[in-house]
Design goal:
Blueprint: H1 4-30, H2 37-43, H3 62-83, H4 89-99, H5 102-112, H6 122-126, H7 133-163, H8 165-173, H9 176-180, H10 183-195, E1 200-207, E2 214-221, E3 224-231, H11 234-255
Antiparallel strand pairs: 1-2, 2-3
C-alpha cells in the first residue's frame, strides 16, 4: 500500500527538477551565475505562489523588491551624475524618476525575459499575471537585489547597466530638459500660452480583460479635438494623445494656421 508521503514524493521530485531548470534558464537570461541560487528563486517568487500547494520553501520577493528599489535608485543616480555633471539635483531627480518608472521597468523585464520564469499562483496564472506591469517591475527590482546580495554592488551595477542599456543610451544622448516635462505638461503649457485654454482628456473606449485593458483617449482644447492615443493604462493613452496634439499644434503654428 502506497502511503500519502510516498505518493507525494514523485511530485516533489518533479517540482524540484522543474525549479532547478527554471533557475538555470533564469541565470542564462540574466547573464549572471549565482553563488547562492536560493536568492534568485526568492526573487522570482510572487506572493501568490506561496499560497499554492507546491510553494516549496522559498519566500516571496517582496523583501528583495524593497532592497532592489534602493539599489536601482543608487545605480541610476550614479550613472546620471556621471553623464550630466553640470545638471542640478532637481533635473537629475526627474530624469531618474522617468528611467525607473513602473512602465519602463516592466518593459525591461519583458526584454530580459523574466515573465515566463516567474513563480506565480494559479490565480495570477489564469489572469495573465506574468505580463502585468506591476508584477514584472517588482520582479526586476527583486532580481537586482538578489544579484546585489549575491555578488555585491559591482555585479548589480553590471546587470543594471546591461539591462537598462537602451534607455540609458537614450538618456545620455538627450538633455535634462527632455526629461523635465512629459507630453501632457508640455501641451498644457503650450495651450495656456497660445490658446488661453487647458487640455481636456476623455476616455472614449476601454477594451480587453481587466488584467490587460486597452484605453483609447482623446484630448481637446477649446472644444476642438487635437489628438488621440491608445495604451495599456489611461496615463499612457493620455501621454500619447498629448504627444500627437502637441505635434499637430506646433506644426500648425509653424505654418501660421493656429487660431
Amino acid at each position: 500500500m502506497v502511503t500519502n508521503e510516498e505518493g507525494r514524493a514523485p511530485r516533489r521530485r518533479q517540482t524540484e527538477t522543474r525549479n532547478r531548470q527554471v533557475i538555470r534558464d533564469a541565470q542564462r537570461a540574466l547573464g549572471y551565475q549565482f553563488h547562492n541560487p536560493a536568492l534568485l528563486e526568492e526573487a522570482l517568487t510572487h506572493r501568490s505562489h506561496r499560497q499554492g500547494p507546491s510553494s516549496g520553501h522559498a519566500g516571496d520577493n517582496e523583501r528583495l523588491e524593497f532592497v532592489g528599489d534602493a539599489v536601482l535608485g543608487l545605480l541610476v543616480s550614479e550613472y546620471l551624475a556621471d553623464a550630466f555633471p553640470a545638471s542640478a539635483e532637481g533635473a537629475l531627480s526627474q530624469m531618474r524618476a522617468r528611467l525607473v518608472g513602473r512602465d519602463e521597468l516592466a518593459d525591461t523585464a519583458r526584454r530580459v525575459g523574466l515573465g515566463p520564469l516567474l513563480r506565480v499562483g494559479r490565480g495570477e496564472e489564469r489572469t495573465g499575471g506574468r505580463d502585468k506591469t506591476s508584477l514584472l517591475a517588482d520582479a526586476l527590482e527583486a532580481v537586482i537585489a538578489a544579484i546585489y546580495l549575491d555578488g555585491e554592488l559591482a555585479a548589480a551595477r553590471a546587470f543594471v547597466l546591461k539591462a537598462l542599456a537602451p534607455r540609458l543610451r537614450t538618456a545620455r544622448r538627450a538633455t535634462p530638459e527632455v526629461f523635465r516635462r512629459d507630453y501632457k505638461s508640455q501641451l498644457q503649457e503650450w495651450a495656456q500660452q497660445r490658446l488661453r485654454a487647458l487640455p481636456v482628456y476623455a476616455v472614449t473606449e476601454e477594451s480587453g480583460p481587466d488584467h490587460r485593458k486597452t484605453f483609447a483617449v482623446t484630448v481637446e482644447i477649446a472644444r476642438t479635438v487635437y489628438g488621440d492615443g491608445r495604451g495599456g493604462t489611461r496615463k499612457m493613452a493620455e501621454q500619447r494623445a498629448a504627444k500627437q496634439a502637441l505635434a499637430r499644434l506646433t506644426s500648425a503654428e509653424a505654418r501660421g494656421v493656429v487660431e
